[in-house]
Amino acid sequence: MAIRECALKNQHFARLYDAYQHRDAAALACKKAGGKVLAKLGFDVPDELVLAAGLMPVQVYADPCKELVNTDKILEFAFDPMVRKQFEKMIDGTYKELADYLAVSNSTDVFIRIFLYLREMIRSMPEMPVPPTCFIDWLFTRNRMHQERNELIISLFKKQLEEWTGKPISDEAIKAAAEVCNADRAALRKIGALRHGEEVRISGTEALVIIGSGFFMDKKEHAQLVEKLAEDAAEWPVIKGTRVFVTGSVHEDLKVYGMIEAAGGVVVAEDHDWGDRSYDRDYNMDYPPVRAIVDRYMLRQFSSKKAFVTQRVDALNKEVADAKADVVMFYTNIYEDSASWDYPSQKKSLDDQGIKNACFAKMLYPADKNEGLADKIAEFIKG
Predict the structure, then answer these.
(1) CA angle centred on 100, ends 131 and 16, rounded to 5°
(2) Model confidence over 163-210: pLDDT tens digits?
(3) CA angle 349-352-353, nearest 5°?
(4) 3-state DSSP: the chain helix, strand, coil percent, rounded to 5?
């Protein structure tokens, strides 16, 4: 199933689709107008602080067609191929032109290693066009001591933003930014409800566009568009098909979801960072600003990259049940090992519940490089 006519003809979806397809346009327009942009590698760079600092946040993403001219000379080949494509853009001048600053969070172990490479390049190869870069070293174990340390880490990130912009970030500015972010998440949850309910009115590919466009455009505009779109989409035709939950690698494009839908499946939910997980948990307006940021990013839905196996098993069980999924599809890129650690225990739990599942592991990137993948997905969906 491609994106449906009812979506393409909707003015709100069309605007989001344009932002999703032309991901650099808003950032370039911001810079042209005299604004400043911060590129984010990882999914735990708090938008609330970036927006409060007067910067536009954009997500670092891979270009599957980009030749790895510089990366092949520097980075080992045993890195997630999507991350290698991202790294090329960070060192070939793409993000030097697109963004003023770069923030890396340790959302995955591979991003920690990427930051170490970037730091050494900035030190020893100053001619390389890498933007000024900082690192956010979260602790993800949920206890009071780690919460206090994370509050220190976020305070340091706030200080770095203030140094970069040359102006203080007030509590009022943070709360104003948080209201925008919370509004965006609330709107996205309305979209989620149109996927997870008994009647599915938004497809997985459409949801990826709606969610992903928010990584590359003004947050307030995104919230307003998604809010209006949720009202319109409530009247869209119901989608029939095998209800699929997707877990594993992030999906920065529509290829895999398109294969699932072409086979008669409908992706009703996922737990990766370009999907449902991105809008889980709000900023608590009753907390002090730094604590509220830590609470939001530290305590949201468990990531496959930063959680204990038991936590991931419980989280997957709950999310699959909430989405009323018929089947679960594990999909991981080659050299992306973290999700594979959870897989045996997750599979056993799903098998014990009688939930059909399949594992597509060590996949090449982009997805269409995998010979016969669409046929294998169809066999799983229809079998």
Answers:
(1) 115
(2) 999 999 999 999 999 999 999 999 999 999 999 999 999 999 999 999
(3) 90
(4) 55, 15, 35
Answer whether 134's CB lies under 8 Å from 159's CB: no
The predicted-structure confidence for 342-354, as pLDDT tens digits, reads as follows: 999 999 999 999 9
CATH of the domain at 32: 3.40.50.11890
Mutual angle of helices 338-353 and 309-323, in 10-degree steps? 50
* pTM of the predicted model as reported, rounded to 2 decimal places: 0.97
List C-alpha distances in Å: 370 to 85, 294, 363, 367: 17, 39, 7, 6
User: Is there a domain that residue 324 lies in?
Assistant: no
CA dihedral 336, 39, 269, 250 (to 10 degrees): -20
pLDDT of amino acid 1: 62
> How many structural domains comprise the chain?
1
Domain limits for position 39: 27-168
Banded model confidence at residue 339, pLDDT cuts 50, 70, 90: confident
Q: Is residue 111 part of a domain?
A: yes
